[in-house]
């Protein structure tokens, strides 16, 4: 008899409740929907953090449970952002351009509008033609499909190539890192079709929406919270079922699972692709809040940071990933934003903007050496104490 | 002009044969007094030639002085003298023949010769022969270079005359090469030119191509009838072919006023806007004009009323173009010459292509040695010990900064580099040992966590370097004797610094092989990496060996950093540029084997240069394609080019 996975995982309920109450509190305190204690820019930071938590959940699924240390998930995140960014930018430019052309003495033809959009968007890279990749940019539905489809296909092809030749462990990590670097370098080119290092910008403005940013930011915040809730539940459902057991088996002893008759490559490919899609959705929610996306976002180091968040939060437990991503990214924002107080030592003043990365780097070392279970390990200690009491 | 030259030649031969009338300079000038006083480009030629051909030793000096406006005429008797100003409006005159002073005169007694620019040009040409025969070889070389910069037809005759008497072998070769180049451009005789062109077949010099290319320059012509027979036609071009699209061909017709301009969508728009009448254009309401079909209809109606020119679209263009033939003609009129030039150029192109391949190969080898240098330390720590050290790039950076700091202390670049190399090794060796002792030894069986921990160290070290040295790039200057390049010909050259890096890479390879194969430490390293427990029971201390091996790999990275810093900028982020490539090099080459790293570096170096050559405008794309190629390559050889076999391969 099958029991509901929530019954097997009471922690999911706890997490969903916590997320819901967090969302409600933030909504009440927000500028857009509530009493205005939390500024719009901080709402955006919180919304972005939720998206980072979502990709951290995906990372935990692929690394913590299946043992694949992918250093490429941020590439999928960025691609998702690019896909939604294309529609946002196209549609917004179209509205502006059409309005401008309508001011003329005779109404514009379709091709005039498109040429004008093209020169608006690609003028910075010295072109005015739409590249092939923008074919569907005029359709929100297709572009939303591409958010999942393009990173998904990339992950599928790359994963198939990598897993079938039995690239495992650190070799796979290096290979995924190379893939990310290749993608970033490709996007840096001006003729990549995605505006080179200018990236896509103005994404915070929803085309055709008159609502102020305080309201729009709340929509995205709520959507991010909902996506995180759904993603977390999906991940919890996966790891609590038979698939989860197989994945853990692969993580702990791949050869043995293979000898038991499971198609290890198939499982790995499935989880790699699925998490890539989740990452892409997180990216598609993140970049409209960030307002701009450029190739610098997806250089390999970003993906390594992602792994570090999960490691600090505690991998192999989904809430650990959420805690790690939320904690580290918020605290990083605080330190690098210049808000942290400087520490005067008399002969030298420690400015956190300069020293935060040193501290962060050393804390990775500390966590891997002394607390391999991360912050999540603290919960184990609590549980043990309860058990004893 | 050519007649003047022949006359000039004749006069010179005369002079050399000793047939010159034994006139002094002053006598020649007095004979041509009127021409000299009112000198103009058209009339002065024969006088200058006569002076030049007089075979008088003072002739050169006089021509120079004349060109520099230092010749004065005495009003009282009309004689010409060199004049130098001794006081204000007071001039000392010297006789041009004897060089003796004839006294001082005030300006009002004198008249200055002021040759205009045309005359000065003729004087300069006449002086060329003097310069080409100057007793000082440096002056002769200088004259040749000046001639190379701006060759003219007038140079050819004096140049030819000066070759036979040239004593210096190098200068003679130089002169005869230049003579052949000038022959190609300026000789009136076609057969001579063709012979000169053929003498250059396969020559790599840029000067040859610069001389030949103008001969085969073509210009586009259009005729409505048959092709003209009196022009040197390069080829006939069909409109609509790859070289000339239909619209481009039509634009040529329009530019020559052979056809009315085609009607573009902008023209239609402008015409419609100009004829809006009460919200309507030609009885079509403006609101409907967002449809191109309706715009066209409106335009046609306007055309019917003769308000705008008739619409000319693609069909009209095609029809119109049928009536014309497009062909390219050479500016050079002689068919024989253009044929010879084309043949010579194609042979030169072939030769240039082969040399470019050689140049590319040298570039690729040099890039490969850089990758090899960057990766060799990693080949030890990752390849032999299996430790993923993401801070490897930062060891390279530490080495480079060590070099920078040493250069601040020791200003002599040669000495400072010699000090920096061992010091960089020492610094990064120490850093490697510390890192191994504090972090890595706890993580030997957890490679993924080693990756994270060393990545943490990497970002901490990067930020630390940024805090100490700032974000600005620091220079690490190579010693003076490494400046410059080894130039094989105009196509192939390689800078000394790259040769030095290649040699350094070879030295590293040798040192590495020696340590691993021939020393006690190498033996122990190999033992410990194969089976640490067995090694321990044989009395080897695995901890110590691991520590030293890791230190060695890190130290080599530091030395590589000094070498890399010599040609790349030293920044806190320079490690990032090499870390992925280094791992790729080791993985592609095959883990656990120095020859693998060498093979990997060679492959990646050649691959990258090859892709860059195929797509020269874009080095970023080259890297992208290279990484994709590597990912695919690993499909076929997952264990790299040189894979360990048997038990050593492990799992």
Automatic annotation (TrEMBL), chain A:
Membrane topology of this protein: Multi-pass membrane protein
Principal location listed in the UniProt entry: membrane
GO CC annotations on file: plasma membrane
Molecular functions (GO terms): branched-chain amino acid transmembrane transporter activity
Keywords: Cell membrane, Membrane, Transmembrane, Transmembrane helix
Keyword set includes Hydrolase: no
Recorded coiled-coil stretches: none
NCBIfam families in alphabetical order: urea_trans_UrtC
PANTHER family named in the record: HIGH-AFFINITY BRANCHED-CHAIN AMINO ACID TRANSPORT SYSTEM PERMEASE, SLR1201 PROTEIN
Protein name: Urea ABC transporter permease subunit UrtC
Organism field: Parasedimentitalea maritima
UniProtKB/TrEMBL annotation, chain B:
Signal peptide (UniProt feature, chain positions): 1-20
GO term, biological process aspect, one: amino acid transport
Chain segments annotated as transmembrane: 364-388, 417-435, 496-516, 547-567, 579-607, 619-636
Record GO cellular component, one term: plasma membrane
UniProt entry keywords in alphabetical sequence: Amino-acid transport, Cell membrane, Membrane, Signal, Transmembrane, Transmembrane helix, Transport
Compartmental location: Cell membrane
Principal subcellular localisation of the protein: membrane
One example GO MF annotation: transmembrane transporter activity
Classification via PANTHER family: ABC TRANSPORTER PERMEASE PROTEIN (PTHR11795:SF447), BRANCHED-CHAIN AMINO ACID TRANSPORT SYSTEM PERMEASE PROTEIN LIVH (PTHR11795)
Annotated family: Belongs to the binding-protein-dependent transport system permease family. LivHM subfamily.
Protein name: Urea ABC transporter permease subunit UrtB
Organism phylogeny: Bacteria, Pseudomonadati, Pseudomonadota, Alphaproteobacteria, Rhodobacterales
């Amino acid at each position: 008899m099958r029991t509901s996975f929530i019954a097997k995982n009471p922690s999911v309920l706890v997490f969903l409740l916590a997320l819901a109450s967090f969302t409600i509190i933030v909504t009440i305190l927000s500028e857009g929907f509530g009493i205005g204690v939390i500024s719009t820019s901080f709402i955006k930071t919180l919304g972005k953090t939720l998206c980072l938590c979502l990709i951290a959940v995906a990372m935990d699924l692929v690394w913590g449970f299946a043992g694949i240390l992918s250093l490429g998930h941020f590439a999928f995140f960025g691609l998702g952002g690019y896909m939604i960014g294309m529609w946002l930018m196209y549609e917004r430019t179209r509205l502006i351009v059409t309005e401008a052309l309508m001011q003329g003495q005779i109404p514009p033809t379709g091709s005039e509008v498109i040429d004008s959009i093209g020169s608006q968007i690609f003028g910075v890279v010295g072109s005015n033609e739409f590249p092939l990749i923008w074919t569907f940019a005029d359709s929100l539905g297709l572009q939303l499909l591409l958010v999942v489809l393009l990173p998904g296909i990339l992950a599928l092809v790359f994963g198939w190539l990598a897993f079938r030749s039995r690239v495992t462990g650190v070799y796979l990590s290096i290979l995924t890192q190379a893939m990310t670097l290749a993608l970033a370098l490709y996007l840096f080119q001006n003729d990549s079709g995605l505006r080179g290092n200018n990236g896509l910008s103005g994404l915070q403005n929803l085309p055709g929406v008159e609502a102020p940013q305080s309201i729009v930011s709340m929509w995205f915040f709520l959507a991010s919270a909902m996506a995180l809730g759904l993603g977390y539940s999906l991940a919890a459902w996966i790891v609590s079922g038979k698939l989860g057991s197989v994945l853990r088996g692969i993580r702990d002893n791949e050869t043995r699972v293979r000898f038991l008759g499971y198609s290890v490559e198939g499982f790995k490919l499935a989880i790699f692709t699925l998490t890539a899609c989740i990452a892409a959705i997180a990216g598609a929610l993140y970049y409209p809040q960030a307002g701009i996306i450029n190739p610098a976002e997806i250089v390999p180091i970003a993906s390594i940071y992602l792994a570090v968040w999960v490691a600090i939060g505690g991998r192999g437990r989904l809430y650990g990933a959420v805690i790690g991503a939320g904690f580290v990214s918020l605290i990083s924002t605080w330190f690098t934003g210049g808000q942290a107080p400087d520490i005067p030592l008399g002969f030298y003043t420690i400015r956190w903007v300069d020293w935060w990365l040193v501290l962060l780097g050393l804390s990775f070392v500390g966590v891997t050496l002394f607390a391999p279970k991360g912050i999540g390990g603290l919960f184990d200690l609590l549980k043990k104490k309860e058990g004893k009491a | 002009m050519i007649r003047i030259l022949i006359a000039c030649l004749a006069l010179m031969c005369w002079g050399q044969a000793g047939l010159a009338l034994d006139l002094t300079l002053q006598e020649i000038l007095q004979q041509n007094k009127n021409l000299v006083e009112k000198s103009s480009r058209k009339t002065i030629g024969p006088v200058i030639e006569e002076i030049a051909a007089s075979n008088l030793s003072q002739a050169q000096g006089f021509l120079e002085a004349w060109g520099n406006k230092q010749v004065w005429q005495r009003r009282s008797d009309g004689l010409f003298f060199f004049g130098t100003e001794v006081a204000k409006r007071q001039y000392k005159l010297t006789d041009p023949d004897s060089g003796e002073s004839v006294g001082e005169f005030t300006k009002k007694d004198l008249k200055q010769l002021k040759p205009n620019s045309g005359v000065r040009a003729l004087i300069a040409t006449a002086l060329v022969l003097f310069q080409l025969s100057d007793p000082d070889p440096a002056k002769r070389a200088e004259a040749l270079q000046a001639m190379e910069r701006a060759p003219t037809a007038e140079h050819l005759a004096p140049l030819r005359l000066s070759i036979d008497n040239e004593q210096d072998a190098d200068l003679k070769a130089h002169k005869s090469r230049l003579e052949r180049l000038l022959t190609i451009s300026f000789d009136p005789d076609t057969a001579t030119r063709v012979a000169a062109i053929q003498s250059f077949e396969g020559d790599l010099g840029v000067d040859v191509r610069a001389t030949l290319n103008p001969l085969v320059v073509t210009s586009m012509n259009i005729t409505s009838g048959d092709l003209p027979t009196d022009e040197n036609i390069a080829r006939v071009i069909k409109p609509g072919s790859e070289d000339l699209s239909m619209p481009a061909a039509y634009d040529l017709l329009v530019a020559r006023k052979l056809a009315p301009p085609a009607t573009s969508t902008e023209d239609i728009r402008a015409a419609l806007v100009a004829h809006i009448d009460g919200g309507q254009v030609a009885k079509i309401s403006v609101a409907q004009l967002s449809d191109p079909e309706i715009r066209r209809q409106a335009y046609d109606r306007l055309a019917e009323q003769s308000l705008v020119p008739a619409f000319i679209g693609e069909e009209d263009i095609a029809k119109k173009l049928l009536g014309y033939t497009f062909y390219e003609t050479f500016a050079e009129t002689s068919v024989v010459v253009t044929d010879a030039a084309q043949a010579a150029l194609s042979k030169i192109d072939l030769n240039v292509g082969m040399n470019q391949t050689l140049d590319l190969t040298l570039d690729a080898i040099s890039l490969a040695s850089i990758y090899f240098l960057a990766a060799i330390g990693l080949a030890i720590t990752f390849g032999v010990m299996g430790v993923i050290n993401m801070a490897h790039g930062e060891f390279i950076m530490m080495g480079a900064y060590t070099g920078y700091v040493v250069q601040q202390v020791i200003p002599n670049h040669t000495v400072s580099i010699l000090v920096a190399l061992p010091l960089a090794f020492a610094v990064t060796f120490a850093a490697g040992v510390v890192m191994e002792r504090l972090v890595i030894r706890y993580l030997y069986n957890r490679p993924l966590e080693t990756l994270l921990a060393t990545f943490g160290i990497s970002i901490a070290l990067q930020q630390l370097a940024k805090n100490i040295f700032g974000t600005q790039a620091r220079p690490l200057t190579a010693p003076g004797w490494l400046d410059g390049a080894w130039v094989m010909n105009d196509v192939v050259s390689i800078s000394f610094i790259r040769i030095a890096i290649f040699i350094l890479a070879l030295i590293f390879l040798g040192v590495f092989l020696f340590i691993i194969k021939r020393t006690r430490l190498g033996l122990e390293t190999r033992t410990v990496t194969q089976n640490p427990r067995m090694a321990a029971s044989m009395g080897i201390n695995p901890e110590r060996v691991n520590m030293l091996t890791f230190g060695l790999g890190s130290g080599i990275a530091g030395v590589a950093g000094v070498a890399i810093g010599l040609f790349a900028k030293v920044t806190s982020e320079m490690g990032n540029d090499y870390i992925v490539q280094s791992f790729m090099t080791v993985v592609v080459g095959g883990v656990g084997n120095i020859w693998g790293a060498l093979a990997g570096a060679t492959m990646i170096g050649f691959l990258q240069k090859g892709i860059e050559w195929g797509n020269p405008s874009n080095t970023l794309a080259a890297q992208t394609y290279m990484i994709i190629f590597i990912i695919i390559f690993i499909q076929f050889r997952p264990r790299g080019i040189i894979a360990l076999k048997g038990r050593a391969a492990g799992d």
